[in-house]
Amino acid sequence: MTVVETTELPAVLLQTESSGKIRPVLLEPDLPDQTFRTSRPDIVGPDVPDKPFPIKLSGPVQHGFGRGSKDLGCPTANLPDESLPPMIAAAQTGVYYGYAQVTPPEGPSSTLPVRDTCVLPMVMSFGWNPFYKNERMTVEIHLLHEFASDFYGYNMKSMVLGYIRPELQYTSREALIEDIEFDKKVALKSLARPGYEVYMTDPFFTAQQL
Ligand code: ADP
Ligand code: RBF
Ligand code: MG
């Protein structure tokens, strides 16, 4: 019996039978893709934030590489290096959830409507972005809200309340996008618990200056 592999998909073998007749044989289908993505829980962390949370971060929003919106369809407001120490001291690199607030600079220069300056749910990436092989650690926050405009230079306060997952290396941009979309759902569901919602009115956010 001769077996010839074709280059066509799905994978097919051509079997030459003793009669000389050729018949195609379908290969066993691949096992289901048991990736991290397909088996993720959509709610994570305890019902009330536990140590080391909450972790408080703040600083002016900086420019990054401009990849979040363009490459991933997910803009991330980057904090400066000076804002990293509370995360470095308390937590491992990874993806986190919590609340954040963009506060307009002093004076009449703010163009953001009031609804953009509320305390909002967020997902945060903290680490080396292995997919992009960054050489510097970053802390980047995506707020789950449609903003009227960009807010570079504005101050951002953030309260990190829980851990979602480690930073991963991906073989495709699509897989990273898929996981980020799921992270957003996880953040919203995980924050919709009374033990987390109370942090929206924490003095860290409501006080004028902290
Ligand atoms: P960069 O690499 O400069 O951070 P991004 O493509 O990640 O560029 O875009 C981030 C910028 O997009 C933020 O600094 C902010 O001004 C703006 N932005 C608009 N909507 C959002 C949002 N929902 N979350 C975070 N940033 C946002
Ligand atoms: N980058 C990675 O290399 N691996 C990740 O697992 C990863 N997860 C992310 C999860 C979220 C919710 C967000 C907002 C970003 C994530 N990133 C990750 C970071 C992404 O690479 C970064 O935002 C872009 O490089 C734009 O700066
Ligand atoms: Mg960014």
TrEMBL record:
SUPFAM superfamilies with a match to the protein in the record: Riboflavin kinase-like
Signal peptide limits: none
Statement: the UniProt record of this protein carries the keyword ATP-binding: yes
All copies of domain Riboflavin kinase, residue ranges: 54-192
GO biological process: one example: FMN biosynthetic process
InterPro entries associated with the record: Riboflavin_kinase, Riboflavin_kinase_bac/euk, Riboflavin_kinase_dom_sf
Keyword tags: ATP-binding, Flavoprotein, FMN, Nucleotide-binding, Transferase
Enzyme Commission no: 2.7.1.26
Domain of life: Eukaryota
Pathway(s) served: Cofactor biosynthesis; FMN biosynthesis; FMN from riboflavin (ATP route): step 1/1
The UniProt record lists the keyword ATP-binding: yes
Function: Catalyzes the phosphorylation of riboflavin (vitamin B2) to form flavin mononucleotide (FMN) coenzyme.
Protein name: Riboflavin kinase
